[in-house]
Design brief:
Strand content of chain A: under 5%
Number of strands of chain B: 19
Strand order of the largest sheet of chain A: 1-2
Shape of chain B: globular
CATH architecture of one domain in chain B: 3-Layer(aba) Sandwich
Radius of gyration of chain A: 24 Å
Oligomer: heterodimer
Largest sheet of chain A: 2 strands, antiparallel
Helix content of chain B: 25-40%
CATH class of one domain in chain B: Alpha Beta
Structural class of chain B: alpha/beta
Amino acid sequence: MTGYLARRNPTVKLALLFAVSLATFFLFDPVTPAVLYLLALAAIVIGARPEPRALAAAHLPLLAFALGILMVNALSRPGTVLWQAGAARVTVEGLEVGAALGARALLIGILSFGFVVCTDAVALLTSLYQHARLNERVCFALVAGYRMLQQLGGEWEVIRYAQRVRAPLGRHGQPKAGPARFGLAAFALLVMMVRRGERVAQSLEARGLGRGARTVWRPVPLTSHDGWFAVAVLGGVALTIGVSVLAGVARGPSALFGG
Amino acid sequence: MPASHPTVTDPVVQLTEVTVHTPRRPAPLLHTVTLSIAPGERMLLLGTSGAGKSTLLHTISGGIPHSVNADLSGQVLVNGRDTSASTVVDIAMTVGVLGQDPSSSVTMSQVDQEVAFPLENQGVPAAEITGRVQEALSLVGAAHLAGRGTSTLSGGELQRVALAGTLVGRPAVLLLDEPTAMLDAHGVTMVRAAVAAAGVDGAAGTAPAVVLVEHRLDELAGPAGLAGLPPRTVLLGDGGVVLADGPTVAVLKEQAATLHRAGCWLPLEAELWAVAPAVGPDDAETAPGPDDESAGRGGAPIADVRGLALLDSFAAPSGAAATLRATPTPGRTLLEGTGLSVSRDRVRRRTARRPGPRILLRDVDIRLTAGEIVAVLGANGCGKTSLLLTLAGLVDPAAGRIEGQRPGLVFQNPEHQFLRHTVAEEIGYGLPGSAADRAGIVAHRLAGHRLEHLADQNPHRLSGGEKRRLSLAAMLAHDRPVLLADEPTFGLDRRDTLATATALTEAAATGRGILFSSHDLRFVAALADRLLVLGDGRLLADGPIEAVLADADLLRTAGLTLPPLVSWLLHRHPGALRRTLHRLDTAPAVDPVPAVVS
C-alpha cells in the first residue's frame, strides 16, 4: 500500500467517505453524482494506484447494481411516457431518477473500494481508538478477529479436504459434494472459530486489555496533511454541487415527486 | 512501602486449602491443595490427564473463579493479594501465561505490536515500550523477528514471540502450560533456550517464579537430563490432591511407577526407574548433577550406569519379545507415485501472465506395499503434509502420477476432521452400505478404540487423546487399503501414543499399508519398517530405519536431530534398535520396595 491516499489517516478517510455519501443523498439528478463519480475515480487511480484488474473486478457488481436501480426506476416511475410495449413502459422521470440513483451507487461503491485498497485494517482500528474514541475492548477484539480472518481460508481448505477424504464416491469416481456437505463443513468451521474466539478472548484479557488508561505505542499519525486532504475533498464536492446548481442541472428530492 | 508489596521472603503464590468444584461434576477438580511458591522458584507440575494441572494454573491466573464457571473455596494469594478480590486483568499484571497453542494466544498481526500490546494495556509510556519490546524479543532469541507478520512465522517462532509477549510485562509468576506440545524438535530447542533465559535474573529484573506443566520432559530437559528440569516437583493425583511435593529427582524416584502406569511421559531415567526400581542411585537427591551433559558421558542418554545396563539387557536378543512385530516381507503394491511434484498451489494451465505453481517437492518416487509401516520424516515446512494430501488424491500433483486405490488420511489436528455432533455419528460419517452394516462397523470401532463410553459425546468436548483416537477410528472405519496419517501422535501422552502405535500395527497386520509423518523419532524408530526422508525440496532417502538414521550427513541435510536414546542405541547396539525400544515401551511398571529402616 503506497501512494498519497495510503498515507492519509484512516479515520479521516472513513469520515469523508460517510460525509460524501451523505451529501449525495440529496442529489437526484444524474449529472452531479456522475461527475462526482468520475472525479472520485480519477483521484483513486492517481492517489491509490489500484491494480487495473482489481478496479475492473470491483466495477462488475457495482455496474450490475446501478443497472438494476436504473431499470426498476425507469419501468416503475409515473410520468411522461417515453416508450411503451404492453404493460411495460419507460418514463422520462423514471430514467432520470434511476440514472441519478445508479450514479450515486457507483460513486459510493468506488469510494468504498478506494477506502479498502488504501487502508490497513489494523491501522484503521488503532486510529478509530485514538481519534474516534472507539472502545478499546471492541477495537482490539476486532484486531484479533482480523487475524482470525486471515487464518480462515487455510482452516476451510483443511476441513473440506478432511470431508472429501471420507465422502462416498459419486458416479464419476469423484467424492460426492453438494449443499448439505457444504453446510456441514461450514458448521464445522463455525464451531472451530467459536472455540478459537473463546481462547482469543481469554488471551486478550490475560494480557490486561480493558484495564483502562492504555497508551498507544505507535500512534497512527494525524497531521495537517490530513486536514488539507479533508478540505480538498469537501471543497471539491461543494464546488461540483455549486456549479451544478448554478448551471441549473442539480435537482433535489423534489425530483422524486415530479417537481 | 504499601502493604500490598510482599517482602523478599514472602511466597509469590500461596494456596491455602484450595478446593475447586464445577457444576457439571460431583467430584472436585482440586481438593484441599495447600502450596506455596517462592519468588524466582521453578516448579514442575506433574499428574495424569484430568488430575487438575490446568485447573491449578487457572486458579493462579484468576481464570478460576473469574472466567471459568467453577466454585473456589480456600484462599489463593498472588503477590500477597487475594485473587477472588481482584480481576483477571489486575492479576495479569503479576502472572504471565504461555499456553500450548500459540496460534490462538497471538492476536496481533505484527510481531512487535504483539509484544507491545500488554505494555500498552498497562499504560506504560510509549517511549519506554520500544526498549522493553526489544529487550523481551532479545531475551527469547527473537529480536530478528520484530518486523515480521505473525502469520508468516513457524510454530516455534510464534511460541517464542508469545513467550516474549508474556515476559515483557515482567511478571512475578510465569505459568507454562505444555509450551512445546505443538512444536517439532527444533521448536522445542528454541523454546527450551528461551524459557531458560527467562529464568535468569538480568536486565529485565528479577526472574519470575515458573510453574511448568509439560508432557515431553525429555525433550524439554534437553542434554542436561534431569538436571535440566525445574528442581522442585509437585505431583497431583486423581481428584486433584497433592500426592507429592519435593525435589524433582526424589519425587520422580518415588512416584515413577505410579506415573508410568497412569500413562504419563517420564524423563528416560525415571522411565527406567519405573520398570526396574532397583535401578538408579541409592541417594536419589544427589543423582545426576548439572555437569552430566551427554557429551561428558560418552554419548550415553543418561548418567545412571545401572539404567544403561538395563537398556543393554533390553537390547539382548534373548528374552520374550513375542509382541514385537517382524519386519514384513514386501507384499503387493497398494499405492505408487512416480515422478511426483508436489505443490499446494492450484495446478492450472500455465499462461504468459500466470507463473507456474510453487513446487515443494520434485521427482518423488514412492511405493507402499501391503502390511508395511512407513514413516515420512523432515523438518517443519518441508512438504510432508502436502505430500500426504497429494497421495490421498486431495491435491493434484504438479507432475507425475499416482496409482492405487483410494487411500484414507488422518489429519494432524483432529478437530479439522470433525463434522458430526456425536462420536458415534462421526465414525459413521460417509460410510457406505446399509444402516445395519454401518451400525456394525461403528460399534466395532467404538470398542476397538476405547470410545464406547463416549459414543454420545460431542467430539469437540473430548480430551486431546480421545479426539485423536476418534479421528483414527473414523478413518479406519472406511476399509481403505492404504492409511495415511499426519503426525498421529502429536500432543499425546505416553498411553495414547502407545495405543496409536498398536492401532497402526493392527491395521498393518490386516494387510493395509501405513504411511505416516512424525517428528517423534523414538516413536518412528519403534514402529516403522522403512523411512522416507524429505529435505531440499526432494526425497533425500528411502530405506530401512537403522541405515537411514545412522547417516549423519543425511540427517544434517534434512535438519533432523536424533534423541539421545536413539543415537546411543544405534552406536552401542546396532541391529537392536527396534527390539530395545519395544521392550522399553512395553515393560510394565514395578512398584518400589519400601526401604527398610534398620
